[in-house]
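Contributing new records

If you add data, match the layout below exactly. Sequence lines come first and carry their own label; structure lines follow with theirs. Keep one chain per record. Anything else will be rejected by the validation script.
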Amino acid sequence: MARAACEPCRGRAAARRGDGVTVSGHTRPPRRSRGIDAPSRTHGVVTDDIRRYQTNLRDELDGAALYTAIAAAEPDPLRKDLFLQLAQAEARHAELWRAKLAEAGVKATPYVPSFRTRLLGKLAQRFGPRFVMPTIAAAEFADRNKYAIQADARSISAEERGHAAIVQEMARTSPRGTVSGADIARAEPWHRGASGNNLRAAVLGVNDGLVSNFCLIMGVAGAGADSRIILLTGLAGLIAGACSMALGEWLSVTNARELASTQIAKEAEELEQTPQAEQHELALIYQAKGLPKPEAERIAAELMRNKTAALDTLAREELGIDPSELGGSALAAAVTSFALFAGGAVCPIAPFILLRGTPAIITSIAASAVALCGVGVLTSLFNGRGAWFSAARQALFGCAAAALTYGIGTALGVSLS
């Protein structure tokens, strides 16, 4: 009887706790907790979304204030107009987030420019807009895809990428009638040749194979291994390293091509859905290159008549992608990487094919040192240093690394024996 009498008590306690409880044959579902499983809402909008709206609003208002301040400090009328157009665009974006906050029943707080915005504005007024443009261009580039992952901001995502391209172009170019030191440097042949990325990649690929296999062979030789074991180890290191480099290069280029294709597809979709916005972005890009506003708008309108040409231009100017190449051939990059690494790695092991014992080790060191000097001479083509200095430095560091592994191999060989 006592146990039965307690059943109603337990039912009332369960009801107070919000557990599922059976009342008159019906089970009442448990009450939901307002913890992690049930985020708080305001007018149906999750609190996290409200914080995101507020952050986006502050960012856009900061952008509008910054571009307005830079426009006030810009003496060139064309660039001033561009900065004002960017400020107006940022203000329109801010209104989008202000409206979303209003829909959620949240009143936006009074805007106060951030310390960074005030500082950059004062620096622009004191030293000129070109002083701060690299910093602003880097920030715009970093945030160019900020809205791409926000489903409710797709309408302004393309504009943000366009702004990044425009600001980068303005950071690179000088106002009309002026010539910067960078412009002069680009006109000099020795500056243009300094960016030989293909040569740099080739030299570094050979160097990777040479140094890694040189150190591997010297480590095994230091341990007192037989010449045939050293040769086998060197061949294994060559094949393993070359395959690893080739696979890494193939994956890198393949991923780059897939990313570029995805971005171009999104740009094509935006071109179909919002052609007027894309035309406006094209006009701004050409204005940033120095064309007068009417001429830039005319060219943009003509390009938009041919969607293929417009997409190609937007991909190049806004995304920095060449649609005809898309990062190059992944297979060609893999084969080239394999060959370069193997070409460097074969130098230390070649003497062990014909020689044995100490003569093979000495010849391997000499051949590797000569190859390191050759790599050093090639690096002098893009590092600005003298050929002799680069050769000596490369040989010194490469031989030092090999001597270190030889010593470690000797120590391990003695301890193991």
